[in-house]
Amino acid sequence: MPLSPERHVSVMLDPKHPLAELLRRDKRYHFDAYVFVFDALRYGQEELGLGDSDEDSELDSEFDDSELEGDEVDEAEDDEERHVTGPELCRAIQHYAIHQYGMLAQSVLGHWGIHNTGDFGEIVFNLIGIGQMRKTDSDRREDFDDVYNFVEAFGQAEVFSIDNVDDDE
User: Where are the alpha helices (DSSP H) in the chain?
Assistant: First the structure.
């Protein structure tokens, strides 16, 4: 489960929370970047069907957000574990960012310190390092590298280019 608004406050108020400590140690990414990755993972699972255990599904999953603290762990234990691969998570993040921010998605992600898909891998493996996500033996940080080009993925090229403007002069 992603961090709820109440949980966001508790993380920000509790300097001993693993995420608060991570943010002090690694200043590359904004707090919202970590929350966004959790939210995008959930979006990918719930809206895009990532991690379904269906035999027909081509989506083999490896990452899991059920390793949260407190009663969220109990709630997650009731559900079947749903894993998502690095490239799948990158695609889910792309869809979720466009869904949430439209043409501003790349700008919002950039404001949080995210400039390429490799940054998603850094965030995920930071979360794994503090016990907030899990991985399988086959998961690698490099699975997130160069999954897509941000300009192409978020449509910035179309927004800021002029295609064959015909003048009648």
Answer: 5-13, 18-25, 31-46, 71-78, 86-101, 105-111, 117-129, 150-153, 156-159
